[in-house]
Specification:
The chain contains 17 helices and 2 strands. Helix content is 56%, strand content 2%.
């Protein structure tokens, strides 16, 4: 295959090495790049919904602008180009299969100048693509070696933090769009033979408390810039971000908007309802974030048998939920939106409505599952769970 550099990619599934292309080609849906709302991708919302959901939607749109700009100035410490960022977003969108999202990032990626065809550039893009796909589809595949490979191919700590934020954000976006499409009765995508995400192994979850430890060097207080300290002042009071905030401060703007979203959805962990805690526990159990799971269990005030049932796997969880219809409706909806958002449809919302949830409550609950998945992937991708210390 002849190696050469050219601008753009002609399809969703981009390769790590450019091949001879006789002419520039358009993406499958070029108009998907021209949406006004780069978070909801021009889904039609009622005026009432736009007003009620405006605070967190504004934060999500701002996060999109920060993490996925059309152009960005590359420096020695910030080497992620717009191509790197958008190709990562497209890789994650492909994993989740929400077509509106795939069309959008494919259309935005197409005109971007790709990297040169050197061995170093190909290796870098290969590592970025592999890490993004694994963290999105099966987070527990990520280990210290995978993180070290990103450093070895030239990504700085700042790059890796921003890169992992992009992966988490696009997963959050995919689930928000999937829930809103379901509420509007839009058809879900269904491809026979394509499996959703597999749940993490039960061995990761023990009855003992677990804590998270960073795998990269956090920002040091003495070197922190005023913008980083300001972002930390928002994130530090939030229990779900307290232990990872100093590492995420390497990208202070992304941390600021993630903190806003966390506060708007959950406030502080001590104030969370059992419904929200159930969502956080179940999402962490599926994704394999033992630290997030342990943190939610510590605040759980519901039936004492639920955490153990969740640790033991789906069969035990189904047996427990048989006598808890409200929790069963939440569990079934969260399982599908977490494992396979492209298959989420109006049918999964009906049991929630039957249990008394309003449309807004169901929306917040399930978009909250996407936010929990974002934080799960940050903690899995950027660090490790420490050995259990206390019973």
């Amino acid at each position: 295959m002849e190696q050469r550099r050219f601008s753009g990619k002609s399809h969703w599934y981009h390769e790590t090495q450019s091949s001879l292309c006789p002419a520039d080609v358009l993406p499958l849906v070029p108009e998907a790049a021209q949406v006004e709302d780069r978070f909801l991708l021009d889904l039609t919302l009622s005026e009432a919904q736009l007003i009620v959901e405006a605070p967190w939607l504004d934060a999500a749109r701002a996060a999109s602008d920060v993490l996925l700009p059309d152009s960005i100035h590359v420096t020695r410490l910030h080497t992620l180009s717009s191509y790197d960022r958008l190709s990562t977003a497209l890789t994650v969108a492909q994993v989740y299969g929400v077509q509106r999202l795939c069309n959008h990032y494919a259309a935005r990626l197409a005109p971007q100048p790709g990297p040169d065809s050197s061995r170093e550039s190909n290796r870098r893009l290969t590592q970025i693509t592999q890490f993004a796909r694994q963290l999105a589809s099966q987070p527990t595949l990520i280990d210290d070696a995978a993180l070290a490979q990103l450093e070895e191919c030239g990504l700085s700590v700042d790059d890796i933090v921003s890169f992992t934020q992009i992966i988490g954000f696009v997963g959050f976006q995919a689930r928000a769009i999937a829930v809103w499409q379901a509420q509007q009765g839009l058809p879900a995508r269904w491809l026979p033979g394509i499996n959703g995400q597999q749940d993490a192994e039960p061995e990761l979850f023990t009855p003992h408390s677990a804590s998270w430890q960073p795998g990269l060097a956090p920002v040091e207080m003495r070197y922190a810039r005023p913008e980083q300290l300001e972002a930390l002042s928002i994130s530090q009071p939030l229990r779900t971000l307290r232990d990872i905030a100093w590492l995420l401060a390497h990208d202070d703007r992304a941390l600021s908007y993630l903190s806003q979203l966390t506060r708007l959805f959950w406030q502080a962990t001590s104030q969370l309802s059992n419904d929200a805690l159930l969502v956080i526990m179940l999402t962490a159990r599926i994704n394999g974030s033992a630290a997030c799971f342990s943190d939610a269990v510590a605040s759980w005030q519901g039936d004492a048998g639920l955490p153990d049932a969740m640790r033991n796997g789906e069969r035990a969880l189904n047996a427990w939920s048989h006598n808890h219809p409200r929790e069963k409706a939440i569990i079934q909806a969260v399982q599908l939106i977490t494992r396979a958002p492209d298959r989420f449809s109006a049918a999964q919302l009906q049991p929630l409505y039957e249990q008394g949830f309003s449309e807004q409550e169901a929306l917040r609950l399930l978009v909250g599952a996407g936010l929990a998945g974002w934080i799960n992937r940050l903690k899995i991708g950027l660090g490790n769970t420490a050995p259990a210390l206390t019973p």
